[in-house]
Amino acid sequence: MNSVRQKVFAALADMHIAYEVIEHPAVYTIDEMDQLTISHKESIVKNLFVRDDKKRNYFLIVLQKDKHVDLKRIKAELSCRPLGFASEDDLAKYLGLNKGAVTPFGVLNDSICKVTVVFDQDILSFEQIGVHPNENTATVLLKPQDLEAIIKKHGNEILHINI
Q1: Residue numbers of the domain that contains 133
Q2: What distance in Å separates the CA atoms of residue 94 and residue 19, rounded to the nearest whole number?
Q3: Which of 2, 32, 69, 146 is the most exposed place for a label (fewest CB within 10 A)?
Q4: CATH number, domain at 121?
């Protein structure tokens, strides 16, 4: 097992969290995920890494994969400055991730807890959600509340909004 995955599975084991792993070819978009013939596709969530226009605040937005994203509306929900997508350099700097592997588990690499994780209220009612284990060749299925517990334990802020 490679080191980017090890941190994720160590956190899951440390907190005695039940999960399932689905291995698959590398995917870079939700559309590519939808084309795979894997089980539990309905549980997959979309993850967007954004920042405000001054690059002071970074947000990892976790939402249902088929929802349309309106950054102006999310800006209003977060009461923050205008939002835009963060660069690949910022993705590597703050979450230790590469393009196509954006996941809430990336906060485990955020040593200064710079990134706020924003959950769409709707996914909190899901029985399970599917996110990458810091690389895009697998999907981890777990309860949204368990993912939140890992993020809270690490120390990153969590917000809930309606998207």
Answers
A1: 3-161
A2: 25
A3: 2
A4: 3.90.960.10
Supply the DSSP string of the chain, one letter for each residue: --HHHHHHHHHHHHTT---EEEE-S---SHHHHHHS--TTGGGBEEEEEEEETTS--EEEEEEETT----HHHHHHHHT-S-EEEPPHHHIIIII---TT---GGGGGG-TT--EEEEEEGGGGGSS-EEE-SSSTTEEEEE-HHHHHHHHHHHT--EEEE--
Report the distance separating Cα 67 and Cα 98, nearest Å.
Answer: 23
| Average pLDDT, integer, range 65-83 | 93
- Indicate the number of domains in the chain: 1
Question: CA torsion 159→51→9→112, rounded to 10°?
Answer: -90
Q: Which of 100, 93, 96 is nearest to 29 (CA)?
A: 100
